[in-house]
Design brief:
Blueprint (H helix, E strand, L loop, with lengths): L4 E4 L5 H14 L4 E4 L1 H10 L4 E4 L11 E3 L2 H8 L1 H10 L7 E2 L12 E4 L9 E4 L2 H9 L4 E4 L4 E10 L14 E11 L18 E5 L5 H18 L3 E9 L4 E8 L11 H12 L10
Parallel strand pairs: 1-2, 1-3, 3-4
Antiparallel strand pairs: 5-8, 6-7, 6-8, 9-10, 9-12, 10-11, 12-13
C-alpha cells in the first residue's frame, strides 16, 4: 500500500499525532501527512489522501476514503458517561454505575464521582458520604462509579484484527491485544493512601507487567477486548483494574488518543506497524 496517509489530531493529541506521523513516515512506502482539522480540510481540497488515521478528533468532515477510528467511534469513547452506559448494556465487566447522585445509597459508599469528559485525573471526586456525593454533583459530576479497593491497574493497547476491519459490528474475538503495561509505583517511599488516583504526578507510571500470572493477564486482555468491541473502535488503550481478592477485572475507560510520544517506549512503533497491517500494507521501509 503506497497511498497517501493523513494522521489527524488536535489539542491533547498533538504530541502523539506528531510521533505517529514520524514513525509511519519511517516505515511506510507512501506519503504520510498530518495535522489539525483545518490543515486536513485544506489537503482535502487539493489532493485528498486515501486514508485518515484519527487520533481523538470528533469534528465532522466529508471524506470518501478509509478512516481508522471514525469520529462516531471516538465520540462514543470520549463521552465517558455514555461509554460506561454501553459497558453496562453489553455486560462489559466494570465498576457499578450510578447515573445520578440520588441513585447512590448509604450501602454503596464510597463511590467515585466523574464528569462525562475528563482526562489526566480531572473531574474526580472520592465520596465517602451522601453529602460529598451531592457536593460532587453541584461541582459537575455527571455519574458515579463503585469504588473498588486493592486492585492492580493495567493499560491494554488493543487493535481490530485485519479481517474484521470495516465490519459494522464486532465481537471481542475480532480484536487482539498488542501490548499490556501495568501502573507501578515509582515515587519516594510508599504511596499516600489519601491519594486514591494512581496518577503520574503522584508517582505512578506504566511499566511492563510485573511477572503476573498469565491467567490474570488473560482475564485483563479479554475484558479490554470486550470494552473496545462495545464502542466499535478500531484501536484504543483500555484501562482495566484487576481485583486480586476475587480475580475480577473492572474496565475503567477506553482512550482513543493513547500516549505515543514517549521515546523510551516502543508503543508508537507498535501502533504504526499494527495500523499498516490492519490497512493491508505489505511494502515497508526499514525504520530509520
Amino acid at each position: 500500500m503506497k497511498e497517501r496517509v493523513f494522521v489527524l489530531y488536535q489539542n491533547s493529541g498533538v504530541y502523539s499525532g506528531r510521533a505517529l506521523r514520524r514513525m509511519l513516515a519511517g516505515i511506510h512506502e507512501g506519503n504520510v501527512l498530518g495535522g489539525y482539522p483545518n490543515r486536513f480540510a485544506s489537503i482535502l481540497r487539493k489532493n485528498p489522501p486515501s486514508c485518515v488515521i484519527n487520533l481523538g478528533t470528533t469534528g465532522e468532515f466529508s471524506f470518501n476514503g478509509t478512516v481508522v477510528n471514525p469520529r462516531e467511534m471516538v465520540r462514543a469513547a470520549s463521552n465517558k458517561r455514555q461509554a460506561r452506559i454501553a459497558f453496562q448494556e453489553q455486560e462489559v465487566p466494570a465498576p457499578q454505575l450510578f447515573l445520578r447522585g440520588s441513585d447512590v445509597g448509604a450501602a454503596d459508599l464510597p463511590v467515585i464521582g466523574r464528569t462525562s469528559y475528563h482526562n489526566k485525573g480531572q473531574g474526580f471526586w472520592f465520596c465517602k458520604t451522601r453529602d460529598q456525593v451531592q457536593n460532587a454533583v453541584s461541582r459537575g459530576a455527571t455519574h458515579f462509579l463503585q469504588f473498588v479497593p486493592r486492585t492492580r491497574e493495567y493499560r491494554v493497547h488493543t487493535f481490530c484484527k485485519k479481517k474484521a476491519f470495516g465490519k459494522e459490528s464486532r465481537e471481542s474475538n475480532d480484536y487482539v491485544s498488542v501490548k499490556l503495561v501495568e501502573k507501578v509505583w515509582q515515587g519516594t517511599g510508599k504511596p499516600d493512601p489519601r491519594r486514591i488516583q494512581k496518577n503520574h504526578e503522584f508517582g505512578w507510571v506504566f511499566l511492563g507487567h510485573q511477572n503476573r500470572r498469565e491467567e490474570e493477564l488473560d482475564v485483563v486482555r479479554y475484558a479490554a477486548k470486550q470494552a473496545i468491541a462495545a464502542l466499535g473502535l478500531d484501536f484504543g488503550a483500555v484501562d482495566v483494574m484487576y481485583r486480586i481478592r476475587d480475580k475480577r477485572p473492572y474496565v475503567l475507560e477506553v482512550n482513543s488518543t493513547p500516549s505515543l510520544a514517549d521515546e523510551t517506549a516502543d508503543t508508537c512503533e507498535v501502533y504504526a506497524k499494527r495500523i499498516l497491517s490492519m490497512l493491508g500494507a505489505t511494502e515497508t521501509k526499514d525504520k530509520k
